[in-house]
Amino acid sequence: MAGNKSYTIVEYFGGDDGYRCGYCKNEKGNFSHGMWSHTMTVQDYQDLIDRGWRRSGKYVYKPIMNKTCCPQYTIRCHAVKFQPSKSHKKILKKMSKFISKGELPTGQDDGEPMDSVCEEAGPREPSKVSHAEVKCPVVTDIQKEVAECPAITGVQKEVADAVPTGSEMPRNDPVSVPDGRTTATPPKPGMGADPSRPPCRKAKDLRKERRIQKEQMRQHADGVSSIVSPTPSTPTQTNQPKNLEDFINESLPDNSSHCLEVRLVPVSFEDPQFTASYEQSVALYTRYQMAIHGDDPSECSESEFRRFLCDSPLEAEYSPDGPEVGYGSFHQQYWLDGRIVAVGVIDILPTCVSSVYLYYHPEFASMSLGSYSALREIAFTRHLQKQSPKLSYYYLGFYIHSCPKMRYKGQYRPSDLLCPETYVWVPIERCLPQLENSRYARFNQDPDAGDARALKDVGRALVLYRRAVMPYAAYSRKRKSSSDETEVQQYAGLVGQDCAERILLYRA
């Protein structure tokens, strides 16, 4: 990133122990690698999620795909190419009808999962985490051993700025985004039963054509030269289906029953919008977790909310070729008539918007808010892509084919799944037949293909040891009796050679 002087600092914890699966409820069937991130750049996190990692607060984990009971495949949607399906249009119209007429559907929408857009987070903060121990006020210059590994470049004295004091989150300039309004509208009288459907629009235009033709025939019969155009618009314009923005940005009637605003707020206690709405967000989160997920009050306390949805390792960053709001972690708040009814937690990264979690008021469970917020986030991604062309994907977290209620993520097309062995993206249509036969599958059909960013030399992996940055080759010489080579090699292999040469692995 342009002007970036920060570095990622992590502690790796391995993945030997199984824990309870939130999908099939297997008590010891869920296996994953994990690491605690003290601080992380958005580019490093982008590279990590493109290798199957995902964060829950500051804890970053990667399912062991060929071992875990419910394999979790990273899924991304091509936001720019996305076209809403019939069911998506139904959800958008349902929200429009509620806002304009105040009609709240009863019951849960068929096919709408009770889960949020992104599944429940992975394992809670492991007891092995020693994040309070990293209290390096100053990191010394890189040791002279680095010179012995000339390929190690780019690590400068500014690494001291990346080391947190205790477990404090790094702070940057707050970002405030103007409010956005939901402006869908119900069909107007005289425009057909459903003007959003191309067949109805086409029938209307055909009627216009017939009227024009009759007028032309009448004028010819009267001896008048016809100058009337055959159609008011080209067939391409007439038959072009509405896109996502058309459904969202239609204007509401003046006498609408409700007003919905969507506000983007950076996750920062230095931001006035974030702090002003914090207590209301906590109360909403607690109510959601207890009603929708059946949590005990102790499991959804203010401290748990902060750890899970506010403590982010990502540092706010800005780039000349990036979006105006910058990169980092944000809350997208849905305000209905002056109160928050839903919050979508998202990360804005160099090439994508990554959905983290969604919580909402249980009173609106029938509004399909999981799918509605995903559609709004796809539209938001398309908006950011106009400012930063490479930011063109929307990540929905993990796709779990073995869990039927999580398959809805595959309905946002076109979309890809990440191959768990070669880390290349494969269209979901090619992946589904394999997943019908086996829970775990390698999607890359080239038998000779491998991991292009595989670990080549563990000695080049960077280590933060006693406030000094050094390649692992130098670290191992300093600790000749060290027995952690296997662990470091496993970590470096999981993050890939590129990340291993950028991320600082903390060693006590």
TrEMBL record:
Its EC number is 2.3.2.8. Keywords: Acyltransferase, Transferase, Ubl conjugation pathway. Residues 224-241 have a biased composition (Low complexity). Residues 281-419 form the N-end rule aminoacyl transferase C-terminal domain. It holds the Pfam family ATE_N. One of its GO terms (cellular component) is cytoplasm. One of its GO terms (molecular function) is arginyl-tRNA--protein transferase activity. It catalyses: an N-terminal L-alpha-aminoacyl-[protein] + L-arginyl-tRNA(Arg) = an N-terminal L-arginyl-L-aminoacyl-[protein] + tRNA(Arg) + H(+). PANTHER family: ARGININE-TRNA-PROTEIN TRANSFERASE 1, ARGINYL-TRNA--PROTEIN TRANSFERASE 1. Involved in the post-translational conjugation of arginine to the N-terminal aspartate or glutamate of a protein. This arginylation is required for degradation of the protein via the ubiquitin pathway. Belongs to the R-transferase family. This is Arginyl-tRNA--protein transferase 1. It comes from Seriola dumerili (Greater amberjack).
